[in-house]
Amino acid sequence: MRSDTKHFLCSIEDGIATVQLNRPERKNPLTFDSYAELRDWFRDLHYDDSVGAVVFAPNGGNFSSGGDVHDIIGPLTEMNMKELLRFTRMTGDLVKAMLNCGKPIIAAVDGICAGAGAIISMASDLRVATPEAKTAFLFNRVGLAGCDMGACAILPRLIGQGRAAELLYMGRSMSADEGERWGYFNRVVPQDDLLKTANDMARRIASGPQFANMMTKTMLAQEWSMTMDQAIEAEAQAQAICMQGQDFHRAYHAFVAKEKPVFQGD
Predict the structure, then answer these.
(1) What is the phi/psi pair of residue 102, to 5°?
(2) Tens digits of per-residue pLDDT, 51-108?
(3) What is the pLDDT of residues 12-53, one digit of tens each?
(4) What would the pLDDT profile of 94-132 be if each residue is shown by its tens digit?
(5) Which one, of 142, 92, 117, lies nearest residue 30 by Cα?
(6) How far apart are CA 216 and CA 236, in angstroms?
(7) Exposed, middle or buried by CB within 10 Å (0-12, 13-18, 19+), for 258?
(8) Which of 3, 16, 105, 155 would you label with 44, given CA atoms 20 to 30 Å apart?
């Protein structure tokens, strides 16, 4: 997997990829280039077995302030409809790539997490925050609809329809405490413990059965649009596939030998 990225920071160690936006002096806004490179990176991740989990980390005390006012918002006001739709589809493709990358993603949220930055945290599988985290789906405050990059589909599933509606209609910040109480954040930890907590979670996931984790992530996304009967049948097929894998056999033999299984992702 590529770690020599141009428009964001990326490091890969022991099966864990750490991703950071790299404009801390401006609270890490996204640009056209960083959107596109993140989309392509997450698309490629689906085909790489060397990474078992991703940590999307803050930089300089902030997660991301969203689309850059000067580099994105300004140019958008000069675009025609075809150009605007190309942009909004491209940003949505980033979320699709995150949902379909096959690897669990942990968002480690600190400070400002707004606009598209909030969407990135929302599209992650797990979220850890500091008490200083302020998450805002602020599209309404810049004259846009709250239905951006899948927010109206995903956010209600995380925190409920009424709470999602409040955030999307008002564009206000959700505090870390609210986010934890509402189920948005899996946990809130002191700032000094944020990356350790996220990395511990990523390490535990990456050391697990990678193919089975991919299947879990796939089912979590695909079952949104299934009936209950369809979901149960899809899970029956997915589990039968996993039962053919060597990790299932390793777990059984380790249990019989009273040892801890060492999964290899096949």
Answers:
(1) 80, 0
(2) 999 999 999 999 999 988 888 988 999 999 999 999 999 999 999 999 999 999 999 9
(3) 999 999 999 999 999 999 999 999 999 999 999 999 999 999
(4) 999 999 999 999 999 999 999 999 999 999 999 999 999
(5) 117
(6) 12
(7) exposed
(8) 155
> SS in 3 state form for the chain?
CCCCCCCCEEEEECCEEEEECCCHHHCCEECHHHHHHHHHHHHHHCCCCCCCEEEEECECCECECEECHHHHHHHHCCCCHHHHHHHHHHHHHHHHHHHCCCCCEEEEECCEEECHHHHHHHHCCEEEECCCCEEECHHHHHCCCCCCCCHHHHHHHHHCHHHHHHHHHHCCEEEHHHHHHCCCCCEECCHHHHHHHHHHHHHHHHCCCHHHHHHHHHHHHHHHHCCHHHHHHHHHHHHHHHHCCHHHHHHHHHHHCCCCCCCCCC
Cα(81)–Cα(90) distance, integer angstroms: 14
Instruction: Decide the pairing of beta strands 16-20 and 9-13.
Output: antiparallel
CA distances, 135 to each of 81, 113, 119, 128 (Å): 29, 5, 9, 12
**Per-residue tokens: 144:** 């846009």
